[in-house]
Design a protein that fits this description.
Helix content is 28%, strand content 25%. By secondary structure, the protein is an alpha+beta fold. The protein has two domains: 133 residues, Roll (Luciferase, domain 3), CATH 2.30.38.10; 114 residues, 2-Layer Sandwich (GMP Synthetase, Chain A, domain 3). Strands 4, 5, 6, 7 and 8 form a five-stranded antiparallel β-sheet that branches. It has a three-stranded mixed β-sheet with strand order 1-2-3. The chain has a three-stranded mixed β-sheet with strand order 11-12-13, sandwiched between helices. A hairpin with a 2-residue loop joins strand 6 and strand 7. The longest helix has 13 residues. The radius of gyration is 21 Å and the shape is globular. The relative contact order is 0.08.
């Protein structure tokens, strides 16, 4: 590692200029591998977390403390953060908005007992660093009663399947999990990635079947938001027949 820093990483870092001390990342998840790459260059990437309703920041990595890849740092001083039902992140502090303009019912749903309910699922470790797991509205809810956030599994699959443009887990109201994979990719590659990920998952999260969709999801097609995030409900509706066929084939096997 020391030899690499001298011969390779120092040259790469030099191209960023002499004044760069750190980068700050927010708005979207940062892959731990990307953060680790910049750390190898000697450039810490400080992650932040917040929402419009929290006037931007709730957490931020401390530049004086080594960062933990995959985490978004501790709560900013003066801001309280806790885990509520289903590990939802709730926040309290002077940064919280007073409510949505002329939308009292929606304001009452997210502002309760002085806490803002973010709709994000999270974890906090012994050091006080937070990790964002997923969105509550994206939870896969099986008919067995099991619930889980699909995003961490989808992210692992995406790392194993770089040729895939989008990966979406499905299974709401079903007895097991399947997935849609958008992009030109070989079934053998998808099966291998699925098997590798399943090995570390509890039985109810394991993926039992998949369908490859040759066309990519697009904003114009109504399957992505303007920010490039997948619209799960729209995808489930558009590909209802493909999703149903996965369960029919599995049930008859």
């Amino acid at each position: 590692m020391l030899l690499g820093r001298k011969l390779i990483f120092a040259k790469v870092k030099k191209r960023f200029g002499p004044n760069l001390r750190a980068l700050i990342c927010g708005s979207a998840p940062l892959a731990p591998e990307t953060q680790q790459f910049f750390l190898m260059l000697g450039i810490p990437v400080l992650q932040a977390y917040g929402l419009t309703e929290t006037t931007a920041l709730c957490t931020l990595d401390d530049p004086g403390v080594p960062v933990e890849p995959g985490y978004v740092g501790p709560a900013v001083p003066g801001i309280e953060m806790q885990l509520g039902d289903h590990d939802e992140i709730i926040v309290r502090g002077p940064n919280i908005f007073s409510g949505y303009w002329n939308r009292p019912e929606e304001s009452a749903k997210v502002l309760r007992d002085g806490w803002f309910h973010t709709g994000d699922q999270g974890e906090v470790n012994a050091r006080g660093n937070w990790r964002i797991v997923g969105r509550l509205k994206n939870l896969v809810v099986l008919n067995t009663g099991h619930k889980f956030a699909p995003e961490p599994i989808e992210d692992k699959l995406a790392q194993l399947l770089p040729a895939a443009q989008h990966i979406v887990l499905v299974g709401n109201g079903r007895s097991y999990v399947c997935m849609l994979v958008a992009g030109k990719i070989e079934p053998n590659a998808v099966q291998a990635a699925m098997d590798a990920v399943n090995a570390d998952l509890p039985h109810y999260r394991q993926i039992r079947n998949f369908r490859i969709l040759p066309e990519a999801f697009t904003v114009d097609g109504g399957l992505l938001t303007a920010m490039g995030k997948i619209k799960r409900e729209a995808i489930a509706k558009r590909y209802d027949a493909e999703i149903s066929s996965m369960y029919e084939r599995k049930a008859s096997a």
